[in-house]
UniProtKB/TrEMBL annotation, chains A, B:
Pfam families: HTH_IclR (PF09339), ROK (PF00480). This is Transcriptional regulator. Belongs to the ROK (NagC/XylR) family. It comes from the Bacteria. Residues 17-62 form the HTH iclR-type domain. InterPro entries: ATPase_NBD, ROK, Tscrpt_reg_IclR_N, WH-like_DNA-bd_sf, WH_DNA-bd_sf. GO terms for molecular function: DNA binding. GO terms for biological process: regulation of DNA-templated transcription. SUPFAM superfamilies: Actin-like ATPase domain, Winged helix' DNA-binding domain.
Length: 379, 379
DNA sequence: TTCATTATGATGGAGACCATCATTAAAGGC
DNA sequence: GCCTTTAATGATGGTCTCCATCATAATGAA
C-alpha cells in the first residue's frame, strides 16, 4: 500500500490527465495530433480534445505546424510551450562562473562565462556570479523578473535555505547565503545545491545516465566529489551530506588529485602519459587507486546500475576508465558499467537548471499548478 | 514533472479514492465513522459513504462495533478487514527457522520455531523450513492455499526469481531455489530476500525507524550485514547487492565478530564486560572499532537520519551503542541518531511478512486490485 | 469529379462527486 | 415518560468529466 497519490474530486482527475498530456507533449518538440496524444495518454479522443483545449486556453499548449503529405484530412498538431518561460542555472566554480539560460525543457538558449581566479574572496566571487547572471540575461534580452526559477551550484555543503554551510575549497565561502544573494537579481525561487550532486542530476536528466535508475556519479577534478541518483531521484541525505565518502581518511580523495598535480614531470600529465611517459602513467595509476577506494565504497553500498565519471579530468577519461574498472573489479562484488560524462564543463550548470525545472514541475503537479500560465509570468 | 500516477477515467478516480479510504481505515483497528473517514480522506460524506458501501460489498471493509457513550445518534463504524487474509513470513537463520503467520496488517497471529544446527546441509535445512511453515499453519488451522502471499528471508545474495545466488554463511546453500521450494507448501506468490535487507524493512515498518525516511540498518551478530531504507523504501540495488560494504577488505566486517567469539575469557563476553572484565571490554571495543568503519562508510554515503542496530548482539546494545557513537563521531561529518532494534529475533521474519504485505499492496494499487476480495481467497 | 481516408466537432449518456435537507436515533433534562 | 439537543443517515438534484457514436469537413488519389 504505497499509494501517495490521494484521489479527490473530478477536478483532480482532470488535473492528473492534464499532467499526463503535458508529459507526453514534452517528449517531442514537433508536437502531436489529437489522435496520437489520445493513444499515448490512454484517454479517448474526445476527452483528449477537451484537455488540450483547456491547456491551450491557459497558455500551456499551442498549436504547432501541420505536417503536410499524409493521406486524409491533415490533423492539427499541438505542442508544449516550452518557450513560455525561462530557467536559469548557475555554476559557481573555482576558476569561473557559468550561467545558462534555458527554456522550460532545459534547452540551452544562451550561456555566459566569467573567469574567476581560484583565490578570489567572497565579495569578488559573488560579483563574478552577478556578472555571469547579468550577462546571460542580457544575451537573452530578459530581465531577472521573467525567470520562473533559478538553480545555483556551489562546492561545499548547502543547507535547506540556500546557505553554504561548509566549504573548504573556496576562500571565505562558508556561510554565504546564495539564495538571498541571487534573489536580488532574479525574482522567483532560487534553489542552491552542491555541485557534485547537481552534476549527477544532469547526467540522469540529459547525460549518459538518462536511462538508469541508480547511478553513482564521480566528479573527478582538482577536487573530488560524488553525487547519487537513487530510484531516479537525486539523493540528498537527511543533512544534505550524502555522497561525502571522501571525508573518510581511509578514502584518499583529498590526497588523490595531488598525485596528478605534483607529478615530477613537466606540462600536461595526461598528454605525457599518452606519449608513454612512465612517471605520468604511474602518477595516474596512483590517482585512480586512491579514487577507486571511495568509488568502491559507494558502489558496494548502493549497487548502482552505472558509474558515471565527470569533472575536469573526464576529458582524459580514456586514461582513467580502464584502470578504474580494474580497481573496482578487485573490490566490488559486481562492477557496474562505467561511462564518461559527455556534458563537458556544462554538467554542473545543467544540473542547476534541472533543479529549477523540478521546482516548476512540483508546482505544476501540486493542486492549482496548471490553472493559468500567468501565475509564473510576473509583471 | 515527476508524476507517475497517470490519470484515466472515472473508475480510476474511484479506485484512488477507495485506496485512500483503505489506507485511512488501516490506521486504526477500531475503525472509523463515516464522518471521521470523510474528514481524513478529504472526500464529502456522501462520496465516502458510496466508497465504503462499495468496499463492504466487495469484502474489504466490515462494520465494527458502535461506540457507546457519545451524545447524539451513534454512528456506524467501519474497519478494514485485516482478518480476511493471511500472510506468511519465514526467516531461515543459521541456528533456527522462524515462521510467522499474520493477518493482512502484519499482526502476528502465530509463530513457530524449529531449531537447526549451524552445520546443517541443504536438504536438512529445507526440511526444517518445511517444519516451521507446516507448524505455523497448523497453529493457525490454515492450509497453505489460504495464504495471500509469503516472504522468505535468507542469508546471502538473492536473485529476482527467488534463488540464492551466493551464500557464504550456510553450507550448501548457494543455488537453492527457495521460491520454488516454498511454492510446494503454499499457493500464492513467494518472495525471497536477503535477511539484513528484510530486517531493515521491518524496522521501518513496525520498528524504531517507523518515522524515518532514510535509515541504515546494521545486523550485528555472528555475521554482520546491512540493509538500507532510502526515501522510505527498501533499497535493493541493481543486482540486489546493496549494503554489501562488508565485502571491502578495509572494512573488517568478516573479522569483527571474531573479536567477540575468540575472546580469551570464559562465558558470555557481554556479561563479563558488565562485571568489569577488562579483556571483555577491550574485545568489545575492538569489535565496535571494526564495525564502525563500515557503518561510517554507509553513513557518509547516504547521510541517513537514523542508524538502527539489530541482530543477535543488539540485546547487549547498552555496551555497543556508546562506543559506536564515539567511533562514528570520529569519521562522520554528521553522526546520525543511533537506536537499538526492539524487534528482537523476530525482526527478519517480520520483514519477510512486510515483503508479502507489500506485494498484496501492489496488487491492490494496480488497476483491478480492489474488484473483489475473492480473487485472493483461492479454492 | 468522385472516392477513400482521416480528422473534427456535436450529441447523448453514464459514472462519480458534491451540497443540501428531511429523517432517524440516541442521550439527557424536565 | 416526554421533549430537546445532538449527530448520523439517506435521498434528491446538480455539476463535472469521461466515453461512444455519428455526421461533417478536408485532403490525396483514382
Amino acid at each position: 500500500m504505497t499509494a501517495e497519490t490521494t484521489g479527490g474530486d473530478l477536478s483532480r482527475l482532470r488535473h492528473l490527465n492534464a499532467l499526463t498530456a503535458i508529459r507526453v507533449l514534452r517528449a517531442d518538440e514537433a508536437g502531436f495530433t489529437l489522435t496520437e496524444l489520445a493513444r499515448r495518454t490512454g484517454l479517448s479522443r474526445a476527452s483528449t480534445e477537451d484537455v488540450v483545449r483547456d491547456l491551450t486556453e491557459r497558455g500551456w499548449v499551442a498549436e504547432a505546424e501541420k505536417t503536410a503529405g499524409g493521406v486524409g484530412r491533415p490533423a492539427r498538431r499541438y505542442r508544449f510551450r516550452a518557450d513560455a518561460g525561462h530557467l536559469l542555472g548557475v555554476d559557481i566554480g573555482r576558476h569561473r562562473v557559468l550561467a545558462l539560460l534555458t527554456d522550460l525543457d532545459g534547452k540551452v538558449l544562451h550561456s555566459h562565462r566569467v573567469e574567476a581566479a581560484p583565490g578570489l574572496g567572497r565579495i569578488e566571487r559573488l560579483a563574478a556570479t552577478d556578472d555571469a547572471v547579468r550577462g546571460v540575461l542580457r544575451a537573452g534580452a530578459l530581465s531577472g523578473d521573467r525567470l520562473w526559477a533559478s538553480g545555483v551550484a556551489t562546492t561545499g555543503l548547502v543547507d535547506g535555505t540556500g546557505k553554504v554551510m561548509l566549504s573548504e575549497a573556496l576562500h571565505e565561502w562558508t556561510g554565504v547565503d546564495l539564495a538571498a544573494h541571487l534573489g536580488r537579481l532574479v525574482t522567483g525561487p532560487v534553489l542552491v545545491e552542491n555541485d557534485s550532486k547537481l552534476a549527477a542530476l544532469a547526467e540522469s536528466w540529459q547525460g549518459v545516465a538518462r536511462h538508469s535508475r541508480d547511478v553513482v556519479f564521480i566528479l573527478s577534478g582538482v577536487a573530488t566529489g560524488a553525487g547519487l541518483i537513487i530510484d531516479g531521484k537525486l539523493h540528498r541525505g537527511f543533512g544534505n551530506a550524502a555522497g561525502e565518502i571522501g571525508a573518510l581518511p581511509a578514502v584518499g580523495w583529498t590526497r588523490a588529485p595531488e598525485h596528478l598535480r605534483d607529478w615530477p614531470g613537466e606540462g600536461d600529465i595526461f598528454a605525457a602519459a599518452r606519449d608513454g611517459d612512465r612517471r605520468a602513467v604511474a602518477a595516474i595509476k596512483r590517482y585512480v587507486k586512491d579514487l577507486a577506494v571511495g568509488v568502491s565504497a559507494l558502489v558496494l553500498t548502493l549497487d548502482p546500475e552505472l558509474v558515471v565519471v565527470g569533472g575536469g579530468f573526464a576529458g582524459s577519461a580514456d586514461l582513467l576508465i580502464g584502470p578504474l574498472r580494474a580497481e573496482l573489479d578487485r573490490w566490488c562484488i559486481r562492477t557496474p558499467e562505467i561511462r564518461v560524462s559527455t556534458l563537458a564543463d556544462r554538467g554542473v550548470a545543467l544540473g542547476a537548471v534541472k533543479l529549477a525545472a523540478d521546482h516548476v514541475g512540483t508546482v505544476l503537479a501540486s493542486g492549482s499548478g496548471l490553472t493559468s500560465i500567468d501565475q509564473f509570468a510576473r509583471a
